[in-house]
Structure formats: structure tokens, C-alpha cells
Design goal:
mainly beta
């Protein structure tokens, strides 16, 4: 059978292709609008056609001749028979390795046979072998034959070579870190099967450790049937002291137009060589508010893939309430900075300053009550960032959830209130004192590299509280500030359900330096409000982080709006930051 195909090119010479052999014309995809100025263009087009046909099963397809006829190019293409994949006899190989290779050659009987199919399948099989202890494996087809229907039968020869096991990590360069920590963090231990994928992933994982510097790429030394992994690592300053000072307009005072806020924190990293972390933070984000946070993380306790993760927080608002939060958890490490965590969570909030006059006038309990919450928590963390503090690409996801019993604690001062119209001694009797509650918080960030020195960060922060009882004012999430909904005063937006979308462009100026422009858009709900429970705060701004010999300095400014409050540059929020690493 001969099929003649003519391609014209808008005033240029045409190309006529005469196909001979078994060819289904309907399955041939032709390229239009090609300009065949000279023979090089013709050869390029014919090579594309032949490659397509070979991938479609016509393995013997070839160009017989190309010549000029009148003002046209003419090509004679011998298509040949169409081949398919028949029986394969697989050599000695473990089922798990075959499954990892996706069965690309197994179970594809009567499929169209192509060079790409065979090459991809064999490469996948070699890769699966190299990740399961056989780095010197070789795979090829032998005893190949075709039956009368063009179906290929062959034997899949698998030469695995020696089974290579991990002997040890050879760590040099003066780094202060335990070998046990590195083995657990890199997910490699003595006696494990050699894995090429884990070796190639080591550099990116080590770069995520803030207290380690990689001098050279990891190398492998083979001794008989064992492998030693060589890591040239140096100590890197990672413990830090930093502070942020904010200048906010004071809307409630005629004498002081501006109010200073501050956020001081200190973090100790890997001082014992075990990858441990101790964190301390003190914040005064409003004149009447003080906050204290203390955290301790100690990984791989007793050489097990578990670690301690504890947190204690104190929040004191001199005019309203005192909150205490305790989180005692156990992490299970999945390699790198990935882990799941279970914990016991306790939260309590007690009233400090009770406005008895307002309560008596309203004749009802206030929007804040004394409460306590005991819960079981479940959390997970996943990171694929190329660098932890100033990433250019990758993903970071942190999810925290808890479910437990919330209890409303009766306040004796409120119960003692009474006048001729109301008596609060029985005010708590109508309440559901104890009930089930669910809390959920998630933070997702994704960094998309743009060129070599830019990245676009997209982030989604979400929070939700669901309870059988009423959710009170002192339980709500407190949003707004330099790290969440920028352009608003610290912790001035209250919500029981929120989603905050961030888009940020960063021009990377150095390892820890960048210039940024950002926008934060939120959808928040406050069920305590009688009307307008939903709002859409929106903030835009810019910032600069620059590293010097004395530390990392930062400055940012942002302005925000809500449905009720428009943009006003006079209300822009300015933050200054400093970070010292030691």
C-alpha cells in the first residue's frame, strides 16, 4: 500500500511523502505550516515523522530516498510492519523491585512496541534495582524473536551484581553532631540496602539543617559488598537572638500618637550535638498584652525514631483574661524534617478584670468566660524546601488538630452579682458546662522559582473551631500583625474560622537576603457578632531583609483594608527586625 501526503508551505517548496507498507493513515499526525527552505528543513521534518512512527510500533520505519521533482521535495518512506509486545520471560528478581519499577514491561502483552517503551521500562528497572541494594545492576533483552503477527518475545536478562549494604557514615570536617542523629535524619542505617535515591537526596536534606554546612557533595566508597558514605560537614551558626520592633498608630490616645511594640526571641540549636532545639519568646504586641512562649524539641530519643516535642504558652491581657497553654507531645520522624506527632493539649483561660457594672446592666453573662480544654492532638509536618530560612523552591505543610472536652468553669465573682432586677447565682445553670470541641490549624507554603534569583511564594493559612458549646471571645483565633495578615494591628481580628491567602514575590539578593512585595487576602468569620460575621481583610506591602556581618536586618511596611475600613496610608504598619546568629 502506498499513501501519498503533500505538505505545502505558503509560497515555499512543498514536501511530498510517499509511505509504503502497513500504515493506518488516520493514526498519522502530520505537521502543517512548515517552511521547507532547504534540505535541512526537509530532513528535520522527515526525522520527526520517522521517530513518531517508530514510537507507534513501526520499528523498521526508514527513509529510502529524498529527491527533487519539479518544484517539490519528494521522500520515499518505507514504513514496514507494525510490531507489538508479546511474551517476556523475566529473570531472577524480587517482586517488590518489580512493583517499584511499575511493571512497565510486565502485563503489556499486545501493546504497541516502541523504542521509547523498552528504553523507559529498562531504565526504570535499573533504577529500582539501584535503590534496593544493586547499584551495579545491568538489564537487557536477549533471545528476541518475532512471530508471524509481529509480536516480540524475549528474555529479560537481569544481572544484579553483588548485594550492597550500608556499612557506616564517615563524617569528617569537624562538625559537632552525633552519627545516630544523622542516620535517623537521612533515613540510612547500618545494614540497610544501598539506595541511589537516598544518596542523591542527601545534599538537599542536609541543606535543610540550619546548624550544618556542606563543604563537598556526599561520596560513596565501596568495600566488597559494603558501602561507606562520606560526608564532609562543618558546623554552622544556627542559634539565634532576634527582635522585631513595630511602630503603630495609637488610635485610642490623644497624647501619644504612636505606640511601640516588640517581639524578642532566642533559640538554641544543636548545642549538645543531638539536633535539639530550645526556644524562648517574649512579646508585647499591645500596651496591655504580654505573651511568653517556651518550646523544647529533642529528636531521636534513646536512638529511636521518636522525639519529645513540648510547648508552654502564656498570654496575659491586663484588661480581660489570662490564658495558659501546654502541649506535651511525641514526634515520629519520617526522615528529614517530616514527622507526625501525637500530644496531650491543655488550655485554660481565666478572667482577670470583670466589668460587673456592664454585666448587671446587660443582665446576661459576658462574651468571655473562664474555660478549660483537655484534648488529644495530632499534627504532621512535610517539607521539601531547598533551604529552610530563605527558600527558592519547594513546599512546606504543617497541620495541627485536636479534639477533646471543653469545660466552662463557674466564676464566683460573677455568681455573686445581683440587684433588684437580676440575680446571677443561677446564671450558669442554663449552660452546657461540658462538651466536645475540635480545633484545626494548617499552614501551607509553596515556592516557585522564577529564573535564578527570584521566587514566588504562595501560602494558605487556615483555622477552624467547632464546639458543641458556644465559642467565647477569649477562645477565638487572634489574627493580624507582622506574620499573619500584614497591614493590620497585632491580634486585632478575631475569628473562629479563617482562610488567609498570600502571594509574595521575592528577589533573592543572597543566602539570607531578599527584597519582597506581598499581598495577604483573608476570609474570616466571627460567630459572636450579631451581624456582618464575615469579613475580607486585605493587606499589601513590601519588605527588605539584608545580611551583614553583625546579623540580618529587616524592614517591612504594609497597609490593610476591610469591608468597613478603606486603605489609608496614614495607618500603614512599619516593622523593623534584627536577627543575630551564633
Amino acid at each position: 500500500m502506498i499513501i501519498c501526503c503533500c505538505l505545502e508551505a505558503n509560497g515555499q517548496d512543498s514536501l511530498i511523502i510517499n509511505y509504503s507498507g502497513e500504515l493506518n493513515k488516520d493514526k498519522l499526525v502530520l505537521s502543517d505550516d512548515q517552511l521547507y527552505v532547504d534540505s535541512l528543513d526537509v530532513i528535520k521534518e522527515l526525522s520527526s515523522k520517522v521517530r513518531y512512527l517508530r514510537d507507534a510500533g513501526y520499528l523498521a520505519c526508514a527513509v529510502d530516498s529524498v529527491y527533487r521533482q519539479d518544484s517539490n521535495w519528494v521522500a520515499e518512506v518505507q514504513v514496514g510492519e507494525k510490531y507489538s509486545l508479546g511474551k517476556l520471560h523475566v529473570g531472577d528478581i524480587e517482586q517488590g523491585i518489580l512493583e517499584e519499577a511499575d511493571h512497565r514491561l510486565i502485563g503489556l502483552e499486545n501493546s504497541e512496541l516502541s523504542v521509547e517503551l523498552i528504553s523507559t521500562a529498562l531504565n526504570k528497572l535499573v533504577k529500582a534495582l539501584s535503590n534496593n541494594g544493586y547499584p551495579f545492576a545491568n538489564v537487557q533483552l536477549s533471545n528476541t524473536s518475532f512471530n508471524e503477527n509481529g509480536a516480540l518475545s524475549a528474555k529479560l536478562d537481569i544481572v544484579k551484581g553483588k548485594l550492597i549494604l550500608i556499612d557506616s557514615l564517615n563524617v569528617y570536617g569537624g562538625v559537632n553532631i552525633s552519627e545516630n542523629y544523622l542516620e535517623k535524619y537521612l533515613d540510612i542505617a547500618q545494614g540497610d540496602r544501598y539506595s541511589e535515591a537516598k544518596i542523591l537526596e542527601m545534599r538537599s536534606r542536609l541543606k535543610q539543617l540550619p546548624f550544618v554546612s556542606i563543604k563537598n557533595n556526599p561520596t560513596v566508597t565501596f568495600f566488597n559488598d559494603e558501602a561507606v558514605i562520606n560526608l564532609d560537614l562543618q558546623n554552622k551558626n544556627a542559634s539565634r537572638f532576634d527582635f522585631i520592633i513595630g511602630l503603630l498608630q495609637n488610635e485610642n490616645s490623644d497624647s501619644d500618637r504612636f505606640t511601640f511594640i516588640y517581639d524578642f526571641s532566642a533559640e538554641m540549636q544543636n548545642k549538645l550535638g543531638a539536633g535539639e532545639q530550645i526556644f524562648l519568646q517574649f512579646k508585647r504586641l499591645k500596651p496591655e498584652v504580654q505573651e511568653l512562649d517556651v518550646k523544647l524539641n529533642y529528636p531521636y530519643l534513646f536512638d529511636l525514631p521518636f522525639g519529645i516535642d513540648t510547648k508552654f504558652s502564656l498570654y496575659r491581657n491586663a484588661t480581660t483574661n489570662l490564658d495558659l497553654e501546654t502541649d506535651i507531645g511525641l514526634r515520629y520522624f519520617l526522615g528529614g524534617n517530616n514527622y507526625v506527632k501525637v500530644s496531650w493539649d491543655y488550655y485554660s483561660s481565666g478572667l482577670l478584670d470583670i466589668d460587673t457594672t456592664r454585666i448587671l446592666m446587660s443582665a446576661k453573662l459576658p462574651s468571655r468566660l473562664d474555660i478549660s480544654y483537655n484534648a488529644i492532638g495530632l499534627a504532621a509536618n512535610i517539607e521539601t524546601l531547598d533551604q529552610r530560612f530563605n527558600p527558592r523552591k519547594g513546599l512546606a505543610l504543617n497541620v495541627n488538630s485536636s479534639i477533646g472536652i471543653k469545660r466552662i468553669n463557674e466564676n464566683q465573682e460573677i455568681k455573686n452579682l445581683k440587684n433588684e432586677l437580676v440575680d446571677f447565682s443561677t446564671a450558669y445553670d442554663s449552660l452546657n458546662i461540658s462538651g466536645l470541641q475540635f480545633d484545626f490549624i494548617s499552614n501551607l507554603s509553596y515556592y516557585l522559582p522564577i529564573g535564578n534569583r527570584s521566587t514566588i511564594k504562595t501560602a494558605l493559612q487556615s483555622g477552624l473551631k467547632v464546639s458543641e458549646q458556644k465559642i467565647y471571645q477569649n477562645e477565638l483565633y487572634r489574627l493580624g500583625g507582622s506574620k499573619q495578615l500584614r497591614g493590620f494591628n497585632e491580634q486585632t481580628i478575631f475569628s473562629d474560622l479563617y482562610n488567609i491567602l498570600t502571594i509574595e514575590y521575592r528577589l533573592l539578593l543572597g543566602e539570607n537576603s531578599y527584597l519582597a512585595a506581598f499581598a495577604d487576602y483573608g476570609s474570616v468569620r466571627n460567630n459572636l457578632l450579631d451581624s456582618d460575621r464575615w469579613d475580607n481583610p486585605f493587606g499589601v506591602g513590601a519588605g527588605l531583609n539584608f545580611e551583614t556581618g553583625a546579623g540580618i536586618f529587616g524592614i517591612s511596611t504594609a497597609v490593610g483594608k476591610t469591608r468597613a475600613i478603606p486603605f489609608n496610608l496614614r495607618n500603614a504598619k512599619i516593622h523593623f527586625g534584627y536577627l543575630s546568629v551564633f
